Structure formats: structure tokens, C-alpha cells
Amino acid sequence: MTETDALTFECALDAPPEKVWRALTVPEYLERWLKPEQAVELAVVTSEENKSLTYRWREAGEGAVMGMEDSLVTFELTPTSDGGTWFRLTHAPIAVPVAANSNLAGPLMMAA
User: Residue 93: CA atoms inside 13 Å, Cβ hemisphere, count?
Assistant: First the structure.
């Protein structure tokens, strides 16, 4: 995985960091923006209240994208002078080591 594998989105929100934090951490609020039909398992990796949060994001089921089953999603919240929040979301795949003899990229040798 390289730095370019990560997707980053930034925007200004018209809500204080404390309110945005609740939307990211309180289960009933999470369900409002995280599609319920999407099979996603979340586990907190790091957390600094009202500032940053990293989830290990695991997709399962039919909607899982090959290579993105496991990823890290980081939310960074910065208060703005007008009482809002500068919101930064980074979604990065977790590189899974592949065995040296793996045939994921095709066979290493062809049978004669």
C-alpha cells in the first residue's frame, strides 16, 4: 500500500466538533449515515474525543470490494472560528501480506 491508495475527503460542516463526534460514535446516529444494508463491522483503533477517530472497517457480504475488505477509516475534526468543524475523512486499505508462492497474479509457471 502506498499513500496514493488512500482516499481523502475534506469539507466544512455547520456543526461544532462535539456534535459531529456524536454522529461518528453514538450507534443510533451512526445508523443514520452508515447504510444499514451494507454489512460493515467497525472496531475502534484510536480515539481522541472530539478530535480524531480511526475505525478498522471490515466489509462483508455481497457488497465487499475485492482488496478493500479491511481498511482504516480516520475522521479528523478541527474547530473553525465560526463554531463549525473542518472535517477530514481518510479511507485507506490495509495491505494484506501475500505469500511468496501465491497465485493471485496468475500462475508463476505454466505446465508443459
Answer: 13
As a whole number of angstroms, the longest Cα–Cα distance in the chain is 71
d(CA 60, CA 23): 23
pTM of the model: 0.72
Phi, psi of 36 (to 5 degrees): -65, -30
pLDDT band at 110, cuts 50/70/90? Answer: low
Q: What element of type H or E holds 56?
A: strand 52-59
The count of residues in the chain is: 112
pLDDT digits (tens, 9 = 90+) for 68-109: 568 899 999 999 999 999 999 999 887 655 555 555 555 555
Distances in whole angstroms, Cα of residue 109 to Cα of each of 101, 103, 104, 105: 11, 10, 13, 12
- Domain architecture of the chain: domains with CATH: 3-93 (3.30.530.20)
Task: State the Cα–Cα distance between residues 5 and 105, nearest whole angstrom.
Answer: 19
